[in-house]
Design goal:
With 278 residues, the protein is an alpha+beta fold. It is 24% helix and 23% strand. The longest helix is centred in the C-terminal third of the chain and has 20 residues.
Length: 278
Amino acid sequence: MPEKPEVITVARKLEKKIINKKITDVKILYPKMIDYPDIQTFKENIKNQVIHSITTRGKWIVLQLDRDYLLFHLRMEGKFFFREKKDEINKHEHVIFELDNEEELRFADVRKFGRTMLIPKDKLYTMKPYAELGLEPWDENLNALYLKEKYKNKKIPIKTVLLDQSIMTGIGNIYADEILFLSNINPLTKPCDLTDVDLNHIIKNTIKVLDKAIEEGGTTIRSYTSEEGVTGLFQNNLNVHQRENEKCHVCGNTIIKIRVGGRGTYYCPKCQKEKKSI
């Protein structure tokens, strides 16, 4: 699943082509990909709005239009393609935005899990998903005190809590494994048992891992690419994720795989010894 670095990579690719373009019409071929508002309102309201900027919030891509924000969540395999209007529509291209330069921006998803929303500007921060999202990893308010307060009653594994988008947003399965490895924290450790030092390590290494992944264009695993012909390179920097039975490059111990909260989780049992509750 695309995580923060992949989402940022997609946004940067789109930015080069869509800023100041007007959306003249939209075709919705798979209505379930529209989360809000209803289909007819979505189609009517988006017409003739200009795309002024593009950013990200958590794992959402956010386009600022004249009156609304257009949000996309890629989920497992969402992608964008630019096509000419005369080009045949692929069976996996489900939401098609006609632009004023005779091109189309097509939102495609083989699994149909991707989602899009059109939210009025005055409702953005009071509606889901924005209203439920935690701090971005680079937010100046993200510190050990903030995490300690959020984690104080958490007795489920830290790996699971790192995936909780209401606390710190943008981290998914791949990067959670890498952050915990660099922080020397066992993925089964209870968040309430973490020290201030541990929490500061999590913050520092979250930024370190995500910055490097963004620099490399994200991580390409299985079938995910951010755009047609675009793939990330951060998989070449992975320390533990998907390296089951390989040797840890730090201590030489064998990396193992377990399941935490239903997610495949990779770690080094020597470098990441489990912290016992007192």
